[in-house]
Amino acid sequence: MANMKGLDVLFVAAGGNFTPDARAISGQITQIAPRVAILMHYRTGLGGPATLAPVPDVAAGFNGRVQYKPAATMISRATLPSTPEVWLMEPLGDLTAVNPGSYTPAMPVGSGSVVSLFGNFAGSKSASSATLPLLRKLEDMEVLVDGAVAPLLFVSAGKINLQAPTKPTTQSLVEVRVGGQRVARGLMNIVRAAPGLLLAVNQDGRTNTASSPARADESLQLYVTGLGPAAPAVEDGTSRFAVPLETPTALLGGVAVTPHYTALVPGLVGIWRVDVLIPGNVRPGDTPVSLTQGFSSASLSAAIR
């Protein structure tokens, strides 16, 4: 292994049958210290046999060092990172499934969460579901997740918003059909919980902006998707009051905060409201806010006065 030290790029088969455990591989990567280590655990969304490894299992051995990269990522010696990085790549397919709180390709989505699909969905017209439960067919478009028709919020020729199944499956095959014909296919990684921050609202009900900041020692309402299973259970495509089985942890300007209220928003599908008290010691200005529930969300910038 000594003669491999300092490789530019190391491809590693990780976490499936007949491959080493990801935790063991993390030690090997530390020893070899490549500039980029790419964990090979995906099949493509275009077919073909493969052994799959659950995303949390693959990522677990790397202590937050994993970076999620789109399938189109290109690398050369000129673009190698200055410090070692561990990558999980987006599965190759005709579509990209992303958490609308970050729009980061390859990053997992939470069970029961709102998901955005991007691709070329030829023949589709724009339409939205205006009733509950959500429709599962809009303008002759359907989306199948592992063969089951998903609840749809919005469809168009380039973007679809849907609700992920409430049962986590890790890698799920997604098919977009228009008029019964498949127009796109890809993979979606569904884990138990993967928060996505969508919006911050001040205690007075105004959207948090630079011109409408929140104040320390006031409550900040966060609208979130991807917090996982709820109690009582909520049927896919429907809406009701329910609380999460596990309470997320919030981070405001580096200060950990436990939310004092977390519940699904009645009338909305897959959207949670999380209320946190802004600590008095948070520095005023643009403050990064994030949630952790299994995975950590991308940061949302909140204005604090």
Briefly summarize what is shown.
With 305 residues, this protein is mainly beta. The chain is built from two helices and 25 strands. The strands form six sheets. It has a five-stranded antiparallel beta sheet, with no helix packed on it.
CATH architecture call of the largest domain = Sandwich
Number of separate strands: 25
User: What profile does the largest beta sheet have?
Assistant: 5 strands, antiparallel
Distance between the first and last residues' Cα = 54 Å
Strand content: 35-45%
Question: How many distinct folded domains?
Answer: 3
In oligomeric terms, what are we looking at?
A: single chain
Question: Could you name the key traits of this structure?
Answer:
mainly beta, Immunoglobulin-like, 3 domains, five-stranded antiparallel β-sheet, five-stranded mixed β-sheet
Please tell me about this protein's structure.
The chain is mainly β and 305 residues long. The protein has three domains: 2-89, no CATH class; 95-191, Sandwich (Immunoglobulin-like); 196-304, Immunoglobulin-like (Sandwich), CATH 2.60.40. 5% of the residues lie in helices and 39% in strands. The chain is globular. Residues 48-52 have low confidence and may be disordered.
Topology (elements, then pairings):
Elements: E1 9-13, H1 22-32, E2 36-40, H2 55-59, E3 66-69, E4 85-89, E5 95-98, E6 109-110, E7 114-119, E8 127-128, E9 141-145, E10 148-149, E11 152-155, E12 159-163, E13 170-178, E14 181-191, E15 196-201, E16 219-225, E17 230-231, E18 243-244, E19 249-252, E20 255-257, E21 261-264, E22 272-277, E23 285-293, E24 295-296, E25 300-304
Parallel strand pairs: 1-2, 2-4, 3-4, 6-14
Antiparallel strand pairs: 5-7, 7-12, 8-11, 9-10, 9-13, 11-12, 13-14, 15-16, 16-22, 17-18, 19-20, 19-23, 21-22, 23-24, 23-25
